[in-house]
Design goal:
This protein is an alpha/beta fold. It has a domain of 193 residues: P-loop containing nucleotide triphosphate hydrolases (Rossmann fold, 3-Layer(aba) Sandwich). Helices cover 32% and strands 24% of the residues.
Length: 317
């Protein structure tokens, strides 16, 4: 069952020299109790897509068409008061840098208690017990001591665990994890991803994982969508994707993984992703694509099903 359906989403930014489209006909479904990985290079539109779900976009961003369906409603029609009820309760964001979400002037106990108080009807003793419980669930050692700690007293991994504890405290149905392991070392990365997987399994939580790391995707995701320059170019289950990667951009990403090039020269993708102000006729990946065909690629490709619910946008298929 899908808990969120993004349908044909178009988004543009108003800049000083004009209005420029950033997302093109983006469609993506997040299933109940699954991790859906949205993969692509920096600047391709992953975070903008995720922020559209909770309507936390820059003031110069304009959604020009499309729908985001949650609980049968198009939340793009919600006013700010309605969105506030969703944010931090039904839908929770785990940012790249947890310091952007933790107030340095308050202890983590105070900040967690505020989330619990907002989403539950409890007395002070029950709130305290719940705070200890969620800190224990995210495997923070000595939670009775840590509740009196300020964010600057915790490591990056511990701060990220506190953010995840807030999601648990809010009884969130959806977690948007925006590059949640970027600033962490490899060992802590694995611990944070294992924690998110445990939450998915134990609480049937849906997770939208924003990442550029296909290694993480291969280990932890259930579904994969690949984004390039504001377009979804490939979508499939994880097993189908890794066994039958099809789009030239997806193939190039796979071939640039060190694990796939053992003993060989590491491949790179020629050129740079286009800026939103760059006008390209047809496929926006075609200037960098080794399979570029002038006749075919000058037409914008549409996502087609190549079997097993595996969607690919490429005119050469």
């Amino acid at each position: 069952m899908n808990i969120v359906d993004i349908k044909n989403l178009d988004l543009s930014f108003k800049l000083e020299n004009g209005i420029f489209q950033t997302l093109y006909n983006v469609s993506l479904s997040l299933k109940q109790g699954e991790i859906h990985a949205l993969v692509g290079e920096s600047g391709c539109g992953k975070s903008v897509t995720a922020m559209s779900i909770i309507k936390l976009l820059p003031k110069n961003a304009v959604i020009t068409s499309g729908e985001i369906i949650y609980n049968g409603d198009n939340i793009l029609n919600y006013d700010e008061n309605s969105m506030r009820k969703l944010r931090g309760s039904d839908i929770v964001l785990i940012p790249q840098d947890p310091m952007t979400s933790l107030n340095p002037l308050y202890t983590i106990g105070n900040q967690l208690a505020e989330v619990i108080d907002k989403n539950n009807t409890m007395n002070k003793k029950e709130i305290y017990d719940k705070t200890i419980e969620v800190l224990s669930l995210v495997k923070i050692p000595n939670p009775k001591e840590k509740i009196d700690s300020y964010p600057h007293e915790l490591s990056g991994g511990m701060k990220q665990r506190v953010i995840i504890a807030m999601a648990l405290a809010a009884n969130a149905k959806i977690i948007i994890a925006d590059e949640p392991t970027t600033a962490l070392d490899v060992t802590i990365q694995a611990e944070i991803m294992k924690l998110l997987c445990d939450i998915k399994t134990n609480f049937n939580t849906s997770i939208l994982l924003i990442t550029h790391d296909l290694g993480l995707v291969g280990k932890y995701a259930d579904e994969v969508s690949v984004m390039y320059s504001g377009h979804i170019v490939e979508n499939a289950s994880k097993n189908e994707f890794f066994s039958n990667v099809t789009h030239p951009y997806s193939k190039a990403l796979m071939e640039s993984l060190p694990a796939n090039t053992s003993g060989k020269i590491l491949k790179t993708i020629n050129g740079q992703p286009p800026s939103i102000q760059e006008k390209i006729t047809g496929c926006r990946f075609s200037p960098r694509c080794e399979f570029h065909d002038t006749t075919l690629c000058d037409t914008n490709p549409k996502l087609i099903d190549i079997g097993n619910n595996h969607m690919v946008a490429c005119n050469k298929l």
